[in-house]
Design a protein that fits this description.
Elements (H helix, E strand, L loop, with lengths): L10 E5 L5 E6 H6 L3 H18 L17 H23 L1 H11 L12 E5 L3 H6 L13 E5 L2 E5 L18 E5 L2 H4 L11 E5 L4 H11 L5 E2 L1 H4 L3 H16 L5 H8 L4 H8 L19
Parallel strand pairs: 6-7, 7-8
Antiparallel strand pairs: 1-2, 3-4, 4-5
Length: 291
């Protein structure tokens, strides 16, 4: 039996509003098998933000998804859409991340400050449909993420390489992929994409997939989430665990709200009513869930 390298007094702790310990786990144990209350405490708030903003939750506090008998496959399909929204969320909250991904999307070399004038948008998202309707295109096979000018929604970030020959620039973009088996599900189609692919390797096979891409598709560009933001992949992996447990009826959305003390009440009612406040349907949570 292996002995722990990390001392037992090193722990992951989730605190309450007054600093009291709500959940704790030895760090070494957390690395092997994260406590699910801690996982929800870490990732529940931001996951609910995305699920609600994209109307993936209904008025009964259940997922708006058609499920099969294969919850792993169902969760993987859903996590692909969630990944796009997560990328947009992180870009909008972190200017340096936005510059880095926009740089790759335009085939640039530098994180230029001009990129701060552009906001990331997921082309197939409810956010795009409601706020950037001319750019809403869930059938776009090349760009999952685009960048729209903050001061002119008609204008997109353009590629700078290669140089356009006819004066009409190519709109910059990224593909986002999330998979447990990149060799089977990402590698075969990598050459279909003109733009870089941000690949979330949910089972940690990025190095294997990257090597295979370099051997067989030398012109393709595969981006590692951990080099964009150190928490990006871990966050999506945490989301996947929560989503799969929801689909297996091991937890409920109300349970997540209780664990992470979610306070996005306005966003909650907006998401449930189809993405717009005042559409005639809302959700009033009990007072003990608002603490």
């Amino acid at each position: 039996m292996l002995t722990n390298i990390v001392p037992h007094n090193v722990k992951i702790i989730v605190e309450g509003v007054n600093g009291e310990t709500r959940f704790s786990q030895r760090y070494s144990d957390f690395l092997l098998s994260p406590n699910q209350n801690i996982n929800m405490g870490m990732y529940g708030n931001s996951l609910l933000d995305i699920l609600i903003a994209e109307s993936m939750v209904n008025e009964n506090l259940t997922l708006n998804q058609i499920l099969t008998n294969d919850t792993h496959a169902d969760a993987t399909r859903l996590i692909g859409s969630i990944a796009e929204s997560l990328v947009v969320k992180v870009c909008n909250e972190n200017p340096e991340v936005n510059r880095t991904l926009a740089k790759h999307a335009r085939f640039g070399l530098n994180n230029h400050v001009i990129l701060d004038n552009f906001v990331a948008v997921a082309t197939g998202s409810l956010n795009a449909k409601n706020n950037y309707p001319i750019h809403y295109n869930p059938s776009d096979t090349q760009r999952d993420i685009i960048w729209v000018n903050k001061n002119n929604n008609d204008s997109q970030l353009l590629c700078i390489n290669p140089k356009p020959n006819n004066g009409a620039g190519i709109a910059a973009g990224l593909q986002v992929k999330a998979s447990h088996n990149g060799i089977k599900y990402v590698l075969p189609t990598i050459n279909d994409y003109y733009f870089p692919v941000l690949y979330f390797d949910l089972d940690n096979d990025f190095d294997m997939v990257e090597y295979a891409v370099k051997q067989t598709h030398a012109k393709a560009t595969l981006l590692r989430p951990g080099l964009i933001h150190h928490e990006l992949k871990n966050t999506l992996q945490g989301y996947f665990t929560i989503i799969k447990r929801l689909m297996n009826n091991e937890i409920t959305i109300r349970h997540i709200i209780e664990i992470c003390r979610y306070e996005g009440l306005t966003e909650l009612s907006a998401g449930i009513s189809g993405g717009g406040i005042g559409n005639g349907r809302g959700l009033i949570l009990p007072s003990y869930l608002r603490k």
